[in-house]
Amino acid sequence: MFHDFALISVFLDLKLSCFMAEVILMPRLSDTMTEGVIAAWHKKVGDNVKKGDLLAEVETDKATMDLESYKDGTLLFTGTDKGGKVQVNDLLAIIGKPGEDISSLVKGVTASSVAAAVSPKQVESPAASKTADTKPALDLTTMQEVILMPRLSDTMTEGVIAAWHKKVGDTVKKGDILADIETDKATMELESYKEGKLLFAGAEKGQKIIVNDLLAIIGEEGKVNVKEIVDAVKNKGNSMTADPAKPGPAETKPVQKTAATSPAPVLNGNGRIIASPLAKKLASEKGIDLASLHGSGDNGRIVKKDVSEFSPAASPVAEIRKEILPAANISGQVSFDEVPVSQMRKIIAKRLSESKFTAPEFYLTITVDMDQAVASRGKINETSPVKISFNDFVLKATALSLKKHPSVNSSWLGDKIRVNHHVNIGVAVAVEDGLLVPVVRFADGKSLSQISAEVKELAAKAKNKKLQPADWEGSTFTISNLGMFGIDEFTAIINPPDACILAVSSIQQIPVIKNGVIVPGNQMKLTMTCDHRVVDGASGAAFLQTLKSLLEEPLRMLV
């Protein structure tokens, strides 16, 4: 479980006049990780690096994860070769300008010394050096730590502060939980790796911080110039750098006009009230009688402002209506709530839009006779340690079918197609804020009871926002099941980079013809959405035929 993804983004963007190099430390990628092994370098010393480029793959005690760059520049130093180990918080790489002197960083670097080495207090500009005899030297022994917003998932671009467990001025110890960070997929805890006082918090509860922007500063009170650090950290577009003392735009309170100061509504030659089209529309939406308004426009014309500022309580017409109409009969008022889009919903919208509008999709639907599956499920559940669902049957049959049809178990990677030999099936789970897709790994080798238990566990973690990156990454195929909601048939949007997704409908009891006789039967429709860049119609149809045969004779799955 990637419970403490706190140092995934220890990159410091301190672009000072005399020191431009960026120090990258080995992040702590799991709660038990003490060191990481370089599984592969994707850049070598001397290569140009851009933001978002994959630098290396880091193998931990639980998974192999990608390490991306958050800075443009040249890779000047790597802490070890492929296969080498680097302790957590030790120097992993340095990015800067070609020819830049990094000897001071490489020599004897540790987590604390890096923090000191990149301190804004250490470097003086040429202008400052000229006045060094009159300006006191900065305290180079100050131990401060700049904490940036970590990148807690493969799709995360910003995080929301769900809660602060420490407030500015509190004493912080190593291992203390600083904050809960809400990402697009889960809410995760951020631990402190420094002892001291929380001197600065980059956002309040509910506010957003872009990945790699300043999140917090921990250090010794009285020895850390917080303002200097905040100014030194170049976080463009981050609201934390704004002057909190600077007042915002002045607020104006609407002033209700009265009949004593405003003319009555003006009528045209046909006896109709003169009002702007927008005012009429707004009044209609709010259920306001234009005859009760006083126009402030030219020649007493009612405009939008008059409708927006109108108070029904001040209207004689409204008072008359109160007496005539029972309160219970008053209806038709337009009402709604506007809810901020959650991080999860933003990413769902972004990724599915990209999938829908970039992948040339086509759809294949097949009807499955589920009579034997219904009968087999009842018998299996008499002895199974966990209750087997029809979704478990579909997942197991799908996994076995994918092994026989590897072209469907493939991924689109832009300039190449990855044909996966392993079968990792993503299972779409509806949660409060949207949809998560935890992954059942190596599903073809698991029994129905193992699949059932794992799906139940993953679904519970998803609903409780306890899923970690290892739970949702790496799918090769996805299943979306709406059968429990009584849906007869539907199509699903591909979950990239998968090439296909299977939409599972409900089992319908309908009359069917068997051996020339009409009998009751159980049928289910399956619809597969395919990326035509990877899967052709014939290969998709062959996969569905295999899947159909397994579900119609489920004992074959147990052999």
Walk me through what this model shows.
The protein has helices at 103-106, 111-117, 126-130, 226-232, 277-286, 304-308, 316-324, 343-358, 371-380, 390-404, 448-463, 469-472, 537-552; strands at residues 22-25, 35-41, 48-49, 54-59, 64-68, 73-78, 85-87, 91-96, 145-148, 158-164, 171-172, 177-182, 187-191, 196-201, 208-210, 214-219, 361-369, 410-412, 417-419, 425-427, 429-431, 434-436, 439-440, 477-481, 500-514, 517-531. With 559 residues, the chain is an alpha+beta fold. It is globular.
Rg (C-alpha, Å): 31 Å
Strand order of the largest sheet: 17-26-25-24-20-23
The residue fraction in helices comes out at: 10-25%
Strand content: 15-25%
Q: Which structural class do you get from the secondary structure elements? A: alpha+beta
Largest sheet: 6 strands, mixed
Helix count equals 13
Q: Report the average pLDDT across residues.
A: 77
Instruction: Give the strand tally.
Output: 26
Overall form: globular
Terminal CA distance: 34 Å
> What ranges have pLDDT less than 50 throughout 5 or more consecutive residues?
1-19, 110-143, 235-263
